[in-house]
Write a structure and sequence with these properties.
Blueprint (H helix, E strand, L loop, with lengths): L2 H7 L15 E6 L26 H8 L4 E7 L6 H10 L5 E6 L8 H8 L5 E5 L8 H4 L3 H12 L3 E3 L5 H13 L4 E4 L11 H15 L4 E5 L14 H15 L4 E3 L12 H13 L3 H16 L12
Parallel strand pairs: 1-2, 2-3, 3-4, 4-5, 5-6, 6-7, 7-8
Helix pairs in contact: 7-8, 9-10
């Protein structure tokens, strides 16, 4: 969309009133942290005024309730090993949270024992690895220990989330799923990926996407949808429709899942607006497609278990 189209679609950011949501929603991308903990936190930074405050289950539960949120999956926000257990302890008594995606290093000698320990907790659904915490998936794939760790993850029935998509990361996911075809992979925040403008680079990117399309074990998290253009965040759903159409046409209704990226999403808009953009698009696809996006596909991808009345699924 060019500047003229953007100016036609942009509006002053505002909180929309809640509307009845008949389809239950599982939010597959929520971060939890508490800056008040001894030793602080690795993210967000103290000078991040939008985020640097406690992001805990009670706060998320209150703000998300009006939108039909029946469950949530926490996604790691720290490279510290001990924070995996902190999250599990934090969500233990809050059944709204049906699981967590942790942070472990698959190439580390201690990975097998660490994974075995966390497998005892059904809330531990997988790990995240990608363009985060100075990691490089492509370089890691050259390490036999890393590939072995990925095979162990797959054998345990857990999923790998990626982080911060780029064309190179998607190409690395192709290599990973060549090496470990039984591994389920979730591509986080794909709407945020910048598609190359250079013709050769774009052709390479499109070839990568075609390969990913043929791999049903690869899912796409339609999260981080909102964008900032010239200092403003468009609120008209029409602005985001071309990119969402592209993902829909590429991956179809059985592989797209909802994630808010809260509270990181506060950099762009408050939760009501973040939800409304996704809801407006997928509700127009019909009730069955919307149900797949909002909860059914997440059940297939993450294999989460129902913890509370009102949550869908078995």
């Amino acid at each position: 969309m060019d500047r003229r189209q953007f100016l036609g679609a942009a509006a002053v950011m505002q909180t929309l009133p809640a509307q009845p949501q008949s389809i239950p929603v599982i939010d597959t991308h929520v971060h939890l942290f508490d800056p008040r903990r001894p030793g602080g936190i690795p993210w967000p930074a103290k000078d991040d005024t939008a985020l640097y405050k406690p992001a805990l289950p009670g706060r998320y539960k209150a703000l998300s309730a009006p939108f039909g949120i029946r469950g949530a999956i926490e996604v790691e926000a720290s490279p510290r090993f001990e924070d995996n257990q902190w999250v599990l302890d934090t969500i233990r008594d809050e059944p709204l949270f049906v699981g967590t995606i942790g942070n472990l290093e698959p190439a580390a000698p201690e990975f097998p024992s660490q994974l075995d320990a966390f497998l005892k907790n059904p809330l531990f659904l997988g790990i995240r690895y990608g363009n985060l915490w100075s990691r490089d998936l492509g370089a890691s794939l050259d390490k036999p220990a890393f590939v072995s760790g990925m095979r162990r993850l797959a054998a345990a029935g857990l999923i790998l989330d990626t982080a911060n998509p780029t064309p190179a990361l998607l190409a690395d996911v192709v290599k990973l799923t060549d090496a470990v075809p039984e591994l389920r992979v979730m591509l986080d925040h794909l709407p945020q990926l910048t598609i190359p403008a250079d013709p050769a680079a774009r052709r390479a990117y499109e070839a990568t996407v075609r390969q990913l399309i043929q791999r049903p074990q690869v899912f796409v998290k339609v999260s981080s949808i909102l964008r900032r253009v010239d200092g403003k965040v468009p609120t008209d759903p029409a602005f985001y429709k071309p990119r969402l159409d592209e993902l829909w046409e590429q991956f179809g209704e059985d592989r797209l899942v909802y994630g808010s990226d809260w509270p990181n999403s506060d950099h762009w808009a408050e939760y009501p607006q973040v939800f409304r953009i996704a809801d407006d698009y997928f509700r127009r696809k019909g009730p069955e497609a919307a149900a797949k996006y909002f909860w059914k596909n997440s059940k297939t991808a993450y294999r989460w278990k129902k913890r509370a009345a009102g949550q869908p699924g078995d």
